[in-house]
Amino acid sequence: MDINKKIDQINYKLNLKKYDETITDCQKLIKVHPNISLLYNFLGLAFQAKGKHKDSFECFTKAIDLDQKDYAPKINLANSCMYLNDFLTAEKIFNKLILEKPNNFLLIANFANFKKKIKDFKSAVELYEDALKKSNNHPSIMNDLAKIYLNIGQFEKSKKIYEEIIAKFPLSADAHISLSRLINYSEEQKHLKTMIDLYKNSKLDESPKGIIAFGISKAFEDLKDFKMSFSYFKSANQLIDKNLNYNLNNDQKLFYSIKKTFENYKKPEIEEQRMDKKIIFVCGLPRSGTTLVEQILSSHKEAIGIGEVEYLEKAIQKYLIQDNKVLLQNLNNVEVNTNFRNYYLKQIAILKYKENSIVDKTPHNFRWIGFIKNFFPNSKIILCKRNLKDNFLSILKNYFASHKHMGWSFNPKNIISYFKMYSDLTNFWLNKYTDSIYVLDYDKLVNDKENEIKLLLKKCDLPWDENCFSHHKNKKSTINTVSIIQARKPIYTSSSNLSDQYQAYLGDYFKELSAID
């Protein structure tokens, strides 16, 4: 077969997200044709999609060496640097490319993604708007701009763009689910009818159909038709879970190794390094109130929220964990300890926040509480807790795009298994570090806002600031979770005990939850 046809086939597989086949085909062709830049670029993109960013970096570097005129691998190289958290190199590459190609809308859009990654949202918005204008309304850029408007609380702008996307691309499941979060269906049902018609469309694949079903479920809950709401989120979860086929074995292996490591662990004698910033870690189960707590804390004049970031997890994966097992020898190594701390703090420093307190609101950091105590002993740890029935329901009825951390969330049996694992590990942490973890009860917070917020600030060693009572007006921090709409509203109690409305449909699962401590 002609080499160009083989390259076209690889590109086709890459577009279909068949990354393993793309990698195999590229590697075979490279052995025969080692000087074709495009093959290294495609190989790098496949590695990048699989999270193998060091491999992708090497591929893009080779592609650039072979063809200095092609800008695609240069943009992709900058993105690999970004994913490797080498933000300084990534920004340097982007700035150089922008000077050379100021009208390349894909380059501008990628630079906007980078700016969003480093929390420079003002620059990101300006770049997305510029890219959109120069691309003549490219759909992916429209979607990125709508998302960032949503993140920074400009809901009307976001809604308008999502409506435009749907008008042009009516099968866009991501646009529909995002728009559904912005609509109160008790006031308007036009979009609900559109989603139902789309759900019935036999041409729709199972995964996007599942995403649409989550949106329909939300609409029926707005209308207080809980039977229909349940019916659709049940279908949604089944459709998504079928295609994910998520297995909890890796999570179980990791949780076991962490607990086993820290049972008799004693921190080595290491000289404490002074930190310029105080770090407040807010963690817990997803949908347990972590976003609300971050919004409250980041409303304080001395604090800033950095949202859900993977800085801590990436540092742990880089230095302390291999194949879901803790590397005890590294945990006791002074040099590794220093490198670990520096890795995390470097990411914080790049954000250049002037506030003295940094709020790292990453729910899954509950796994790393022992590591936090080891490397950042003077930090504050807030563990959010919620009525398990409400927490279970809130996870089950929401779509989580991050399957890496939330693959278990689309199957009720997996959710309960994960809750048990969570309970076992957090109880272990609470027994080991009794005085170092503040458990914040979400239900108490929404029912006794004033006293609970005052207590929260006291536990974080923050002086009183009345801005914390108006957290919904906070524009300092962005929100990039499914709680995005709720956290921009004043505290409300309507979500407490909402699970009672679903007792007839989820009662057996609720019984299992009652046995979890």
Walk me through the structure:
This protein has helices spanning 3-15, 19-32, 37-49, 53-66, 72-83, 87-100, 105-117, 121-135, 139-151, 155-168, 173-182, 190-199, 206-222, 226-244, 249-263, 290-298, 311-319, 328-331, 334-350, 369-375, 388-396, 403-406, 412-432, 442-447, 449-459, 503-514; strands at 278-284, 303-305, 321-322, 325-326, 357-361, 380-385, 437-441. By secondary structure, it is mainly alpha-helical. It has a five-stranded parallel sheet. Strands 3-4 form a two-stranded antiparallel ribbon. Helix 1 runs parallel beside helix 3 and helix 7 runs antiparallel to helix 8. The N and C termini lie far apart (63 Å).
Provide a brief overview of the structure.
The protein is mainly α and 517 residues long.
Core attributes:
517 residues; mainly alpha; Rossmann fold; two-stranded antiparallel ribbon; 7 strands
Q: First CA to last CA: what distance? A: 63 Å
CATH topology of the domain at 252-514: Rossmann fold
Largest sheet strand order: 2-5-1-6-7
The main sheet comes to: 5 strands, parallel
**Number of helices, counting only DSSP H or I runs of 4 residues or more:** 26
Structural class: mainly alpha
Rounded radius of gyration (Å): 24 Å
The CATH architecture of the domain at 252-514 comes to: 3-Layer(aba) Sandwich
CATH class of the domain at 252-514: Alpha Beta
Quantity of strands, as a count: 7
Beta-strand percent range: 5-15%
pLDDT below 50 for ≥5 consecutive residues: which ranges?
none
Dominant shape: globular
Mean of all residue-level pLDDT scores: 91
**Helical amount among residues, as a percent range?**
55-70%
Task: Kindly report the name of the CATH homologous superfamily of the domain at 252-514.
Answer: P-loop containing nucleotide triphosphate hydrolases
